[in-house]
Amino acid sequence: MTDTVFFVTILLILGTVLTIFGMKYGAAAVAARSRAQSETGYRELAERAATFQSKSAASLASIEADLAAVAARLASVEKILKDVG
Fold it and tell me: What is d(CA 45, CA 53) in angstroms, rounded to the nearest whole number?
C-alpha cells in the first residue's frame, strides 16, 4: 500500500508540473498568434493610410493648379478693369 501511495503522489506531482508547463506553452502560443494578427492589422492600416495620403497629395496638387489658374484669370480681369476705368 505504501508503494501505491508513493507512486500516486509522484504521478500527481509530475502531472501538476506538466500541466503548468503546458498551460504556459499554450498561453505563449495564444499571445504570439494574437501579436501576429495585430501586426497584420497595423500593416494593413499603414498601407491604407499611405494610399490615402498619396491620393490626398494628388488632389491637393490639382486644387493648387486650379487655384493658380483662377488667380491668373483674376489678374487678367483686374488688368482689363483698370484699363477700362
Answer: 12
